[in-house]
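#onboarding

Welcome to the new folks! Below is a worked example of what a typical request in this channel looks like: someone posts a single protein sequence, and someone else replies with the predicted structure as tokens. Don't worry about understanding the tokens yet, we'll cover that in week two.

Example request:
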Amino acid sequence: LIVLNTNGDTNIHYFPLTEEEIRSSLLLMTEKNIKFIVYYPENVLQKPVLWTHSNDIASEVYPRYSYFSDIVVSSKSDIERKMKKDRPCMITIKPKSLSIFRNLISQKFAGDVESGSVSLNSTEVTVNGSGITKATAVKTIAEYYQTPLEKILVAGNDQNDFSMLSLPVGKRFIVGKFLSGMLTVPVTSVKNPQRLGSALYEFAKKL
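Example response:
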């Protein structure tokens, strides 16, 4: 997980995956079950890297992802070497079939799934360093800016947002239906990002 300063050009705090965590993630990836992965390098001036083993998949994802990521087609051994050099803080795995991949993740990362470091989202899997979640990032920001959690607003739409939304913050928004009914704390639900923008605007006017 990465926490940036307000200019977005410096790491306030960086939580890289270990080489063993990178290796464990890549062990799950085969041509049969992986469409692509995306990871974020330590250097904030570098684009995220989207890796796939297939030129056909690269051509398929290029129109949607090329504007914000560098698309790499290579072998697993090549991308493992690159990832060790880039020291990613998060790996997002896009499987061909989430239902089949879910069992593999649950077996390999059972403890990390329980802690929230590995999230089985609606369409993908997110892998952070062991014990690192979005709640870690929010608490790091609060400490850095010396801001009480009750003065912080958070919003999320997927499983990897659960830890952050469970914090004792001042306001919580959930976007869409995926998290509906999963949280036991007060939340405000909005249908889509556009509605979230309107809700944030109205909330800010009251500050």
